[in-house]
């Protein structure tokens, strides 16, 4: 077993020498996408994290860029956090790889060298706004339903839902043993000749194929589905397949939005 430093001795002897450039160990692990900050804290207290070859169990420990951090024997990369918005086309997997050789979202950001991953997912046939980052803590914060970040979708339904059926979406119901609920739903337009409707639906959760499953349960399969907004972000100025980095104030807004809505 690797030797273990106490917190005071560790911070005195190890690190890059500049406290201003150092961060708490659990935050570094979370940013690397290894685990949420809470899970990172447990990994530390369980003695599964080493810094420069020494087991560290104190949660107050800080590390710098020159320190080698390993979690359960696996080194982590301490990249600078980056944040991107992608207009995901239909027919693309929300993953970093696919064993069937299908296109994945990271294929659209070939110039990005950091090890980014999508925050949540849009299913294969759904287009729209998806965020990518290498900041695991940021991703976990946005995905947690208790943080109530609005995700706005536009759905084209086969058939025209009634006002009562839209109320059912907001009231919530169980589908295949899983409770599904929308925050808001309204009809934007209808085409009685084609018997179709354009419906806006807002979610806080991101359960697997949630929007499609809810409409299927009501008897209105979807012809198209697109996520148009995520928190304060939208797709303005982008075409399918385009991406852009988030501006610092946009990252800050998302953090503030998620933090403000914590129950």
Automatic annotation (TrEMBL):
<dbReference type="GO" id="GO:0000455">
    <property type="term" value="P:enzyme-directed rRNA pseudouridine synthesis"/>
</dbReference>
<dbReference type="InterPro" id="IPR018496">
    <property type="entry name" value="PsdUridine_synth_RsuA/RluB_CS"/>
</dbReference>
<dbReference type="Pfam" id="PF00849">
    <property type="entry name" value="PseudoU_synth_2"/>
</dbReference>
<protein>
    <recommendedName>
        <fullName>Pseudouridine synthase</fullName>
        <ecNumber>5.4.99.-</ecNumber>
    </recommendedName>
</protein>
<keyword id="KW-0694">RNA-binding</keyword>
<dbReference type="Pfam" id="PF01479">
    <property type="entry name" value="S4"/>
</dbReference>
<dbReference type="GO" id="GO:0003723">
    <property type="term" value="F:RNA binding"/>
</dbReference>
<dbReference type="InterPro" id="IPR050343">
    <property type="entry name" value="RsuA_PseudoU_synthase"/>
</dbReference>
<dbReference type="InterPro" id="IPR002942">
    <property type="entry name" value="S4_RNA-bd"/>
</dbReference>
<dbReference type="InterPro" id="IPR042092">
    <property type="entry name" value="PsdUridine_s_RsuA/RluB/E/F_cat"/>
</dbReference>
<dbReference type="InterPro" id="IPR006145">
    <property type="entry name" value="PsdUridine_synth_RsuA/RluA"/>
</dbReference>
<keyword id="KW-0413">Isomerase</keyword>
<dbReference type="GO" id="GO:0120159">
    <property type="term" value="F:rRNA pseudouridine synthase activity"/>
</dbReference>
<dbReference type="InterPro" id="IPR020094">
    <property type="entry name" value="TruA/RsuA/RluB/E/F_N"/>
</dbReference>
<comment type="similarity">
    <text>Belongs to the pseudouridine synthase RsuA family.</text>
</comment>
<dbReference type="GO" id="GO:0005829">
    <property type="term" value="C:cytosol"/>
</dbReference>
<feature type="domain" description="RNA-binding S4">
    <location>
        <begin position="23"/>
        <end position="80"/>
    </location>
</feature>
<dbReference type="InterPro" id="IPR036986">
    <property type="entry name" value="S4_RNA-bd_sf"/>
</dbReference>
<dbReference type="InterPro" id="IPR000748">
    <property type="entry name" value="PsdUridine_synth_RsuA/RluB/E/F"/>
</dbReference>
<dbReference type="InterPro" id="IPR020103">
    <property type="entry name" value="PsdUridine_synth_cat_dom_sf"/>
</dbReference>
